[in-house]
Automatic annotation (TrEMBL):
Protein name: Inositolphosphorylceramide synthase subunit Kei1-domain-containing protein
One Gene Ontology biological process: inositol phosphoceramide metabolic process
Transmembrane annotation, as ranges: 12-36, 56-76, 88-114, 161-184
Family matches, as InterPro entries: Kei1
Keyword field: Membrane, Transmembrane, Transmembrane helix
Signal sequence residues: none
Entry GO terms, CC: Golgi membrane; inositol phosphoceramide synthase complex
Organism annotation: Schizophyllum amplum
């Protein structure tokens, strides 16, 4: 059983990146930033393995970022090749990555906003942090009440800005997921080159290989694809009056002969020469 949304419930695919960039260019630029984010996770894993320390959640996230880095590289190649099928698979993966990142951010927000005391006490999570604490220059001693009051004043100023950054990052990644889905949808429908900011296709009909499928998905005839997405890239070849086609010769040969005799089949054996050939 195939589960699909009704046509009236489906989101209309985006046509550009904020109305200023081509859809493909916007996806590539956004994926480069996502690639940089995953590279930072790899550096976090290296720091953890070299003694920086970290919780199990942090280490698992660093390991996942390493695997996701490879997936983003492959997805970036599929986007540049305009491969509709692989781009759709990558869109599914990116949405899964966004959902996983959302769960981790929610867990981090609960721990940081509600479980962390924010009382100004120094905490060392590793030997390197402890060494940095001892190497810090001396400061004026403070009582516990003064330290808590100063730390809470800083926290009141920073927590709103931190929440705004997290929300903006979440919305940006959600928009990027919609962007990739829109790009994959346009590739599957064959409408990407018809978008206002898209460049014309460099391919010509003669350069299309003979084994190229009728749809951008490259699926077999036995696979059931919704007509909303499956749009043929080539019009069927057929003979119409007033239009030339590849099937015209076959139609001419297979056409029934009329009752009249052809002028070429008189059988009189005479050969007619042109006036120029007699000279």
């Amino acid at each position: 059983m195939k589960l699909t949304l009704r046509p009236e419930w489906r989101l209309y695919p985006l046509a550009s990146f904020f109305g200023v960039l081509d859809l493909k260019s916007g996806v590539v630029v956004a994926l480069l930033f996502a690639l940089l984010n995953k590279v930072a996770g790899v550096y976090g894993l290296i720091a953890t393995l070299t003694g920086a320390g970290g919780s199990f959640a942090q280490i698992s996230l660093y390991l996942y970022s390493t695997v996701a880095l490879v997936a983003i590289v492959l997805g970036l190649k599929a986007v540049q090749r305009e491969d509709a099928k692989q781009t759709l698979y990558f869109a599914h993966f990116f949405f899964f990555d966004h959902a996983l990142s959302t769960a981790w951010v929610v867990w981090f927000a609960i721990v940081w906003w509600f479980q962390t005391p924010h009382d100004g006490r120094r905490q060392a999570n590793s030997a390197a942090q402890e060494a940095m604490m001892h190497a810090a220059p001396p400061h004026e001693p403070m009582t516990d009440a003064q330290r808590v009051a100063a730390a809470m004043a800083i926290w009141q100023q920073e927590k709103g800005f931190a929440a705004a950054i997290i929300i903006m990052s979440w919305l940006s990644k959600f928009y990027l997921a919609l962007l990739i889905y829109s790009y994959a949808t346009h590739l599957r429908k064959g409408s990407y080159r018809a978008l206002p900011l898209s460049r014309s296709s460099p391919l010509i009909p003669s350069s299309v290989p003979a084994h190229y499928d009728d749809t951008a998905l490259g699926l077999g005839e036995d696979e059931d694809v919704d007509d909303f997405y499956r749009v043929p890239l080539r019009t069927p070849v057929g003979h119409k009056p007033g239009q030339g086609s590849a099937g015209s010769l076959a139609d001419f040969v297979s056409a029934p002969r009329g009752p009249g005799k052809s002028a070429l089949g008189n059988g009189n054996g005479d050969i007619v020469f042109d006036a120029d050939e007699r000279r």
